[in-house]
Amino acid sequence: MKTSPTDRNDALGQATGTVAKAPALVSLKNVSKTFANGTVALRDMSLDISRGDFVSLLGPSGCGKSTALRIIAGLGDASSGSLAWPVRSPVDDKSGTGGPNQDISFVFQEPTLMPWASVFSNVYLPLRLKGLSRTAAREDVMDALQMVGLESSAGSYPRELSGGMKMRVSIARALVTKPKLLLMDEPFAALDEITRFKLNNDLLHLWEKFGWTVIFVTHSVFESVYLSNRIIVMAARPGRVVQDIAVDAPYPREEEFRTSDTYNDYCRQASQALHSAMEVSEPA
Amino acid sequence: MTMATVDNQHSLSGEKNRKATKSLPEAARWISVAGRMAIPLMMLVLLITAWSLYVWAFDVPHYILPSPMRVAVALYTDWPILAPALLVTLKITFTALTIALVGGVALAVLMAQSRIAERALYPYAVILQVTPIVAIAPLILIYAPSTQAALLICAWIVAFFPILSNTVQGLKSTDHNLLNLFELYGASRWQTLVYLKMPNALPYFLAGLKIAGGLALIAAVVAEFAAGSAGAGSGLAFRLLESQFRLNIPRLFAALFLLSLTGVAIFLTTNTISYLLLRKWHESALKREN
C-alpha cells in the first residue's frame, strides 16, 4: 500500500525516509498556475513522484494535467509554489538552475515529427542538438528505433508511416537520450484501440526493462489502470488533485490483465474517483 | 560449367522479368505524359492555324496583324537585334531575382529573430511593395547611377517582397510542440533556426520564389517602359516600343514571343526547383494516395 502524498512529503521533508519506498525524483509543492486570461489551470498541487514509478495523471479536460506535465518539463513556470528534484546530483543539473532538460524526455499527443526529415533524422534530433555527429549517434539512434521495432524504417519519411508508427518514432526520439524521466501527454489518445493496446504493452515492456520513471497523462480510466502503479485523479476548474490511487497489481501485466478481476476493481475505483472529480469540477 | 550456365540463364531471365515488370508502368507513364502534352499541343496548332487562316482570309495587313509565318521570319532575321536585347532583359531579371532572394531571405531571418527589427523594417517593406513600381521608376531613374542600375533596382523592389513576406510567414509558422521540443532539449537559437525554422519555411519560401520569378521579369519590362532607354544596352521592352513606333509589328510579336518564352522558362525552373526540394515530404509535391 502506498502512502498518501502528504505522508511522503513529510518523510521527505525530515529526510528520515521512514515511510518512503524510494526517494522522490521530482516533487511539486503547492504549485499553482494561472494563465494570462485569468484561468486557474492548477491550484495548490502537491505531488511527489518516486523514482521508477509509472504514474498516471487522470482527469477530465481542463483539469491541468497537461499543464502540470509542462511545468515538470520546464516548459513554462508555475505561478506560485515550487518544483524540486531532491535526488538530482549536481552532475545531472548542468545548468545549475535546478531546471530539468538533462534527463527528461517528452512525448506529445501528436507525434510532432519533422516532416522534412527521415525517421532516422527525427530520432537523431535530440543528440544532434547536443552536438553529436550523425556517425557518433548512429548506434544510439538505431538502438532506440529497435526498441520500438522500427529499425527497418530508418530511411522512411513520416508521411509514409501509419499513425501508430509515427507515435513509435516519437517514442524512440524520447528514448534516444536514455532519459530518467519520461513525460507523456496523452500519447495514444489519437490512435485506434488495437494500436493503442499494442503500444501500451510495448511501453510497459520497455518500462520494466529500463526502469525509467514515467508520468503519463491520460483521460482513459482503462489505460491508466492497465499501465500505472499509481493514479493521480484530478478535478478541473481549478485543476487540483482529488485522489491518489495505488494500483497494487504485479507486473509484468499482459493482455490477460485486462480481463482480470483486479483490473476491473481498479477500473471501478478509478471511474468512481473520476466521477466524483467531475462532480466537484465546475461545468465546462 | 553447366551449372554456371543454368545459373546464368536463371539470372538472365530473372533480369528480363524484372525489366519487363518495370517497363510496363514506365511505358504507361510515358503514355500518360504524352496524353497530357497532346491536348495543349493540339490547342497550339489549332490557334496558329486559326490565326493564319484569319490573316489570309481577311487579307489583314501585316502592320496590323502579321501571320505567324511572318513572326517566325522576323524572329529569324531580326535575331541579331533581338538576341542582345533578350540577354539584357535576362541579365536584369536574374540579377534582380538573385539579390531579391539573398536579401529577402536575410531580412526575413532577421525579422523572425528580432521583433524590433521586424517592427522597424516590415512597414517600410510593405510601403515599398504597395506603391506601384511605374510610379517610383521615374524617381529611381533620377537617383540611380545608370539606367541599367535603375532597371535592376525596380525589378528588385518588386521581386523581393513576395520572398520576404512568404519566408517570414514560414519561419513564424513553426509547430509549437516542435518548438517546445527544441526548448526541452536545450537547443540554441541558431540550432532552432537552422534545424527547425528554416526547413519549415522552405515551402513558403519556394512559393514566394515562384511569384518573385514572374514578377522580376514583369518589373524589368515595366521599368524599361518607364525609363524609355535607348541604344546598345536596351532590353526587349525597348525593342517592343521601338517596333511599335516603326510599325514593325512582326518584330513586336517576335519580341513578345521571346518575353513569354522567358516567363515560361522561369516558371518551369522555379517549379522544378520547388518540386525537387519538396518531393520527399511536402503535400504540394506529393500525389494523393487514393
Automatic annotation (TrEMBL), chain A:
* Keywords linked to the UniProt accession: ATP-binding, Nucleotide-binding, Transport
- Highest taxon, organism lineage: Bacteria
Residue ranges annotated for the ABC transporter domain, each copy included:
26-263
Question: In its keyword annotation, does this UniProt entry include Ligase?
Answer: no
Listed GO MF terms:
ATP binding; ATP hydrolysis activity
**InterPro entries of this UniProt entry?**
AAA+_ATPase, ABC_transporter-like_ATP-bd, ABC_transporter-like_CS, ABC_transporter_ATP-bind, P-loop_NTPase
PROSITE patterns in UniProt: ABC_TRANSPORTER_1 (PS00211), ABC_TRANSPORTER_2 (PS50893)
Q: List the Gene3D superfamilies hit by this protein, alphabetically.
A: P-loop containing nucleotide triphosphate hydrolases
Similarity remark? Belongs to the ABC transporter superfamily.
Matching entries from PANTHER family are given as: ALIPHATIC SULFONATES IMPORT ATP-BINDING PROTEIN SSUB 2, TAURINE IMPORT ATP-BINDING PROTEIN-RELATED
- The protein depicted here goes by the name NitT/TauT family transport system ATP-binding protein
Species: Breoghania corrubedonensis
Automatic annotation (TrEMBL), chain B:
* Domain ABC transmembrane type-1 positions: 86-270
Domain of life (superkingdom): Bacteria
Localization: Cell membrane
- GO cellular component terms given for this protein: plasma membrane
Annotated region (Disordered) at 1-20
Query: What Gene3D superfamilies does the record tag this protein with?
Result: MetI-like
The cross-references to InterPro entries, in alphabetical order and at most eight, read: MetI-like, MetI-like_sf
Say where the protein is mainly found: membrane
Q: Which GO terms describe its biological process?
A: transmembrane transport
Q: Which family does it belong to?
A: Belongs to the binding-protein-dependent transport system permease family.
Q: What is this protein called?
A: NitT/TauT family transport system permease protein
Give the organism the record lists: Breoghania corrubedonensis
What does the organism's lineage look like at the top?
Answer: Bacteria, Pseudomonadati, Pseudomonadota, Alphaproteobacteria, Hyphomicrobiales
